[in-house]
Hints:
The chain is α/β, with parallel strands linked by helices. The chain has a single domain, classed as Metal-dependent hydrolases (TIM Barrel, Alpha-Beta Barrel), CATH 3.20.20. The protein has helices spanning about 10-15, 20-25, 40-50, 70-80, 105-120, 135-145, 160-165, 185-190, 220-235, 235-250; strands at about 1-5, 30-35, 55-60, 85-95, 125-130, 150, 170-175, 200. The protein has an eight-stranded parallel beta sheet with strand order 1-2-3-4-5-6-7-8. Helix 3 (about 40-50) runs parallel beside helix 4, helix 5 packs parallel to helix 6 and helix 9 crosses helix 10 (about 235-250). It binds nickel (II) ion (NI). Nickel (II) ion binds near residues 6 and 8.
Amino acid sequence: MIIDTHAHLSDRRLAGELQHWLQLARQAGVKWIINVGADLASSRLAVEQAARHEGLWAAVGVHPHDAKDWTPAMAAELEELARHPKVCAYGEIGLDYHYDFSPRPVQREVFIEQLRLARALNLPVIIHDREAHQDVLNILRAEGPFPAGGVMHCYSGSAEMVPAYLELGFYISFAGPLTFRNAKKPRLAARQVPMDRLLVETDCPYLSPEPYRGRLNHSARVVHVVERLAEIKEVDFATMAAQTTRNAEQLFGLKGADATEAN
Ligand code: NI
């Protein structure tokens, strides 16, 4: 049984046929999916979807792309949403210096504000870091410790930076890019992560793994990430699936019924 720790099922390419994607995931051995918000609307929908489907959990938060639209009223509504029993994390939040859709100082300010909100809510944080490695690390160090923990989602940093995140108590999550043929950097990073700090995810509908690179991604394809990670760590598939599932349950405090089906 596998847990896809990062999916965007509120995306319109997946939300329309949610039942279909959940069924494929269940058939592939996916037990639970963490449905991650990226702005207020997708956070709201992620919680609604999680409330309706047993196999889903939700995370709420504002992505750095949308930091420019942040308002105090939004903070209040996210806090309210975060109190729903199916919300298991705060995110995704962080910095994105690749696209720079929001000015960097605004990204940093909104990131810090949400880290504080997550801590007040006692929720683990889901961190997005694209080409902003040093600033993300500096902010996490300054704002820590994080008693509820956190995860570096779709890890794109170097192998050398892994120990710094481990020291913060964070988990490291890998997605489709780990399976790409030219993926030397994530492969080297994965070797540095101890088994009890690894997580797997799809980040669907984005980042479809090999052999589906470039196509619409969905939670069932997390299997290919588990496979690749098992090869890299030189363990069998079942061992990697069980270990990453235990890790996700531990970080996100997941308990209860399984199977990604409707009530
Ligand atoms: Ni994401």
